[in-house]
Amino acid sequence: MFFLCFRNAQTLLKMSVTSLARILKSFSAPISEEHGWGIIHQACVALLELETSAEPLYLVETTSQLLLTDDGSVHHRS
Q1: What are the E-state strand segments in 1-78?
Q2: pTM (2 d.p.)
C-alpha cells in the first residue's frame, strides 16, 4: 500500500491507494460478483470524470494496474 498526497485549498489530503491485484492476493480468493460490479461501476465513474480532462487515457490490462482508494473508488491514475 502506498499514499498519494493532494493539495486541496489549504489542507493536505492523504489518500490510501492499493491495487486490485494486492487485494485479491491478500484474500487468496476471487472477489464476489457484487464486488466485481461495484468495481466496474466505479471505473465507469472515473472514466466519466476523465472524459473532459486533458490527461492521456491508458488501457488497464491487469489487476495490478487498477488502483483503488480506501473508500472503494477507482483512483484517477489507474
Answers
A1: 2-8, 11-19, 67-69
A2: 0.66
Maximum Cα–Cα distance across the chain: 41
Cα dihedral across residues 26, 33, 75, 12: positive or negative: negative
Provide the mean pLDDT of the chain: 76
- pLDDT tens profile 16-38: 888 889 988 988 888 889 988 98
Measured distance CA(33)–CA(62) in Å, rounded: 18
Non-local CB neighbours of 6 within 8 Å, separated by 6+ positions: 12, 13, 15
For residues 65, 34, 17, 60, the Cα torsion angle rounded to the nearest 10 degrees is 20
Cell of 64: 495490478
